[in-house]
Design brief:
The complex is a heterodimer. By secondary structure, chain A is of the alpha/beta class. Chain A has helices at 128-150, 161-164, 166-176, 192-211, 222-238, 257-271, 285-295, 310-316, 324-334, 337-365, 370-375; strands at 14-20, 28-34, 48-54, 62-68, 73-77, 79-81, 84-87, 94-103, 106-111, 116-117, 180-185, 215-219, 250-252, 275-281, 299-304, 319-322. Chain A is 41% helix and 23% strand. The chains are: A alpha/beta, B mainly alpha.
Amino acid sequence: MAPTSGADPPAPPTDVRAEDSDDDAGHSITVRWSRSPDDGGGARTVTTYTVLRAESAAGPWEEVGEVPAGTTDYVDRARVEGGQVAHEVTNGTPYYYAVRASGPDGGRQAVADAPAIASAQWYHKGKTPILTVLLVFSALVLYFVRKARKHPEGIYVRPIAGMDAVDEAVGRATEMGRPILYVLGLGTAATISTIASYAILARVAKKVAQYQSRLIIPNYDPIVMAVAQETVRQAYTDAGRPDLYDEKDIFFVTHAQFAYVAAVNGIMLREKTATNFYLGKFYAESLILAETGNIAGSIQIAGTDEASQLPFFVTACDYTLIGEELYAASAYLAREPLLLGALKAQDVLKGLAMAWLLVGALLTSFGVNLLRRWISVQM
Amino acid sequence: MNGEFIPHTVAALFTLAIFSFLWKDNPLYKAAESLAVGLSAGYFTVILIRTSLMRTLIDPLFEEGQVLVIIPGILGLLMYLRLTRRWTWISRYPLAFYMGIASGAALSPTILAYVVRQIEYTIVPMGFGSWEGITNILIVVMVFCSLFYFFFSVPHKGVFGGVSRIGIWVIMVAFGAQFGFTVMARISLLIGRVQFLLGDWLGLIHLE
């Protein structure tokens, strides 16, 4: 614990210890120490603590981080900068740590007694509330799907205006001899709202095939396009009109947001689409799309779970599915036991969540934070 | 004429071409649209080749010897069978794999963001003794009513209908605030573009 430099450096920190960080995929070691007696008291001044690392107890030591006085821990984790590994903490490699208390007159360091080895954990304890919600929800889904299979008519689904208008919108396009535009948004094929949109697309495509109308789907993402092609192809087959399916009407445009919007706007005006569906994940392009469709006089049905974009759809579209209505729409349209059961399970989970937050808020008002603490996820 | 005049002029002409859509669809807009689509599609193709193909498949396979990346590589290649008539059905397997993995991976973050965090941050101390306590009462009541609107398996009649109606009012008030906020942001974008046209391009205005 000799001074590293200077004439009268502060005393080193004490009780330095290093251990693998909890609840992660490894590549991280947490170093803890007790403050130097000169930190916040004593004759000398501590300004920073420098964390040093070595692969053997004898060194050489390299500085891996610095924290201000008063701090008693530091997490040494791997860093990637500009696509390159800037700092590595290799799983399985023993690392020795030292902490130096530094002040204007230099610093002194203390070394941890034992090395630490980074490793990954199979279970993240802080995420237990998520696992619990998942298990409860899964159980509810299984129960209600089973129930819906026995008595599908026993599950009520309240009317969703936008979905009631689907048949009318497709029928109008057919009467006018104009195509229908379906925009799946900017999400990936795995975005929840895009998945919900596929279910509605299947229904719309089936109706379009029955009416022998035309469906245009410009895409922002190539994988979304591929899934949309499969969905529409299947819907046309189900409707008994696979001959009407034209893959060229479901195409990739570009992966740039506003170039995509410019192209879709052009399609609306040049193809004179009678009905526009905007269902999926939308961002700043929502108002531009909906406003153009409004100017073109198209019937517009929109839906997204992106709360910041819903006001624009509400303003410029004829019907808007707000948030979870988008998820419920597929069950409302198809009335399949699987979807109905999942919808009922969602409602029950929602009821439990509402009860939890109401009771939790009441208890918190009287100083009991039990329910809030339990639901709190530590990342 | 400074060195930026030509790029500024090109940018300004394309800005005006896009703005011309406000009048009606026209050849200038079509040209700007086609250029934007073509350029961006090409640009993102190159980005994808570098960030996805090279960084996650070619480099790990040939430079680092990570043999396992062959599996996603093969799945990716199978996607190209969509271009054939006979083997197009095989491309459904990588699609199914992608959808399954991605949906499963999205489950936990979705439950965290849409369920757990929402509940956690709505559990706030209520009371009539302070302005914060009264605000918290409003938060809890409004969240409760808004959630009620999203009950689908219960008819919205009677008491349920009343609570649900309050919920949709709350939602619409929030939408109104959001609308105003975003319109302000869009206006500032427009101001930025006008500043570019009048300042950077034409030099008619000078901003410090």
